[in-house]
Amino acid sequence: MIDNSVLQLGRILYTNVWPVYHYFDPSSLSFPATTRTELPAVLNRLLLEGELDMSPVSSFAYGMAAHKFLLLPGLSVSADGPVKSILCFSKRPFDEAVHGRIALTNTSATSVNLLKIIAEKAYGAKPEYVTCEPDLEKMLEHADAALLIGDHAIRADWANSGYVVTDLGVEWKAWTGKSMTFAVWTVSKEAASRYPERISELTEALVASKLQSMKDLTPVAKEAQSRLGGELEYWNEYFANLNYDLTRERLDGLSLYFRYAREMGLLPETVDIEIWTDTMQIRVNE
């Protein structure tokens, strides 16, 4: 009997995932699938509630329920230094601002907790945190610093009117010497068990799209320019600066991030990273 059930896929709204999706056509898959494009926080919730079978999510969201999910191999949004879209805007130098009040975006948990880890572990700060909608001027009306991510951060950086801008990817790399993985592609263990052939085909299609994009980022950069504005050179550099693999180096940085989050009580338990393959689950211990 043919299983005609539809696989529910998620996609992050932000431009940083575009190289993975530029050449990906869900209609070309051999099985029915639908895609929901949402902010990371929404995808995180939908995946945890079982409304999605597979989705890229913020790394922290995966860490919160890693026992229920597997990482798809070869896919992430990572940076080995500057990320250019995870930015803290402050009225005074970052090392001073982290000791005051920080306005946090409400759109992704990974970057929020990365800032907390850097502020408290790297700088020994105990700031006051407030969560806000991603509107820079309103955020800074009553705060010393404001965290924005994704397209909100990019636009605010373009329009910057004199604030100090701190790239959290740079801060993490300078402090730990490791890369930082901001998003991962996850599949529920239930879906992986029920539809192994589909998950294999889906993974291959996403990785193939990513590899095709990385051969020449110009088409992706042109799409970003047409939708968001800016210079073509900026977008070419932006995408080239990101890493979309899931190598041992990415996993090492991700494991350290999870360890620090656990030590600070941000995660309820230790995270054992498990990666899906056709034949087995690969476990990556901290």
UniProtKB/TrEMBL annotation:
Q: What class of enzyme is it?
A: lyase
UniProt xrefs under CDD domains? PBP2_Sco4506
Residues in a coiled coil are none
What reaction gets catalysed by this protein? chorismate = 3-[(1-carboxyvinyl)-oxy]benzoate + H2O
Q: Which UniProt keywords apply?
A: Lyase, Menaquinone biosynthesis
Matching InterPro entries, A to Z?
Menaquinone_biosynth, MqnA
Enzyme Commission number: 4.2.1.151
- Associated pathway: Quinol/quinone metabolism; menaquinone biosynthesis
Pfam families recorded for this chain? VitK2_biosynth (PF02621)
SUPFAM superfamilies for this protein = Periplasmic binding protein-like II
Q: Any idea what job this protein has?
A: Catalyzes the dehydration of chorismate into 3-[(1-carboxyvinyl)oxy]benzoate, a step in the biosynthesis of menaquinone (MK, vitamin K2).
HAMAP family recorded: MqnA (MF_00995)
Give the family per the record.
Belongs to the MqnA/MqnD family. MqnA subfamily.
Which PANTHER family does the annotation name? Answer: CHORISMATE DEHYDRATASE
Name used for this protein in its record? Chorismate dehydratase
Which species does the entry assign this protein to? Answer: Saccharibacillus kuerlensis
